[in-house]
């Protein structure tokens, strides 16, 4: 696998730069990227509804060490290649509207969430190294 410089939105072995940071609004983050998910993902908090909370919790990952400039669309662009997303929640400061440095990403399938954890954790994002783990760590496994 050839690694690029990571500054053009093309895949690299260890780094990804959002389209917004690149200054462009077109192109793809990864080959085969399906773009933003058109399914749900809205809501005003980490859990906008109480339906299927158990299933939702099983396929939710927590992403930490995000830059302040991160936007919800950046996260959709980064995680959609791993599978269909049902929800993206980016924690933001109420006064400055900047990222607090963490987010929750919910996939429709647990296997897709697992793939994202394996591939994105330790990945260079803008100027930081991301940490991706299960949102609710299993108690008895």
TrEMBL record:
Alphabetical list of Pfam families matching this protein: RRM_1
Region feature (Disordered): 1-57
Recorded GO MF terms: RNA binding
InterPro entries on file: eIF3G_RRM, Nucleotide-bd_a/b_plait_sf, RBD_domain_sf, RRM_dom
Keywords: RNA-binding
RRM domain sequence ranges: 59-137
Family matches, as SUPFAM superfamilies: RNA-binding domain, RBD
Lineage: superkingdom: Eukaryota
Stretches with biased composition (Polar residues): 1-11
Full protein name: RRM domain-containing protein
Organism: Adineta ricciae
Biological classification of the source: Eukaryota, Metazoa, Spiralia, Gnathifera, Rotifera
């Amino acid at each position: 696998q050839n690694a690029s410089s990571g500054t053009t939105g093309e895949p690299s072995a260890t780094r990804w730069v959002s389209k917004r940071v690149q200054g462009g609004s077109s192109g793809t983050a990864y080959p085969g990227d399906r773009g933003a998910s058109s399914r749900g993902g809205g809501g005003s908090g980490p859990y906008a509804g109480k339906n299927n909370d158990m299933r939702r919790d099983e396929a939710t990952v927590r992403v930490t060490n995000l830059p302040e400039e991160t936007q919800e669309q950046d996260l959709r662009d980064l995680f959609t290649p791993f599978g269909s997303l049902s929800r993206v929640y980016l924690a933001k400061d109420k006064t400055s509207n900047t990222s607090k440095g963490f987010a929750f990403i919910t996939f429709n399938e647990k296997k897709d969430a697992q793939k994202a954890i394996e591939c994105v954790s330790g990945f260079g994002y803008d100027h930081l190294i991301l940490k991706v783990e299960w949102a609710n760590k299993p108690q008895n496994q």
